[in-house]
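Lay summary. Proteins are chains of building blocks that fold into shapes, and those shapes determine what they do. In this project we predict the shape from the chain. Here is one chain we studied, written as its sequence of building blocks.
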Amino acid sequence: MDKWRLPLTCLCFLAPALALMVAAVEAAPPAVKAPAAAAAARHYVLVHGSGHGAWCWYKVHNLLRRAGQKVTALDLTSAGISPIDPNSVLTFPYYNKPLIDFLASLPPNEKVVLVGHSAGGLSLTHAIHMFGPKKISAAVYAGAVMLRSGFITREDLAIGFPNISEAVRLGFGQAPDRSIMMTSFAFLPKYLRKVLYNRSPEEDIVLASALLKPAPGHAMLAARFNSSGVDVDGVPRVYVKTMMDRVFKQEVQDAMIKKWPPHKVVALNSDHCLFFSAPEQFTEVLLKV
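And here is the predicted shape, written in a compact code that computers can read:
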């Protein structure tokens, strides 16, 4: 059997969510017009945050393609349609392997614009440390974790790992030494509207409720990066502030911006998940990068 063929039971499970996505795309507003500076198609690589997957970008993905751009949205290990148990993902390089493998597979002269949301910012920074400006023409942190070396200090943890313990359920698994430790976390359904999607359309909250998965929290907390001679600061960075965010509040985003100043800061009146609450405005920002 083709290894990519989904079992019939999986297709039945996904059918309602897929129907919602198709309906939303069909009802989407007119394509965002690309500015003159973005006339030539570029390749945008979209990286999701905790619990989400490639599916969360469906509006932005569609708008970018309609503006003539090339787009790739990835599922990181254990996310989206990945069959991997998040409780078995214990290192950040393993979690981020799909992005690193994708960038390594690009033709020698091709560069991409990386776009990361929330914890997806860690994935962008890891990729920048691995490839630098050789493969990455720009990196866009959208309400995302932006720490130059990952979680090195207590301050890094304080600003890069939000305190939303009341909104998540912890998962536990076995450490390499056979002890039990926190390995994952999942967003509680009753907090989705209050914390994540406070300005997002109801249909997108329904979609997310069907598709959100536990995130490999232990692997994320273990994210630490070393450039090994790569020109990390040679990659232009844009930080998109999410002004109505209840996950990364303004003082947290400002602290990350101050700690590792990007080349440009843009503010949008969106909740944490701007791909749902402000997709057109966010796409316009991406086309101007």
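What the prediction tells us: Confidence is low (pLDDT under 50) at residues 1-28.
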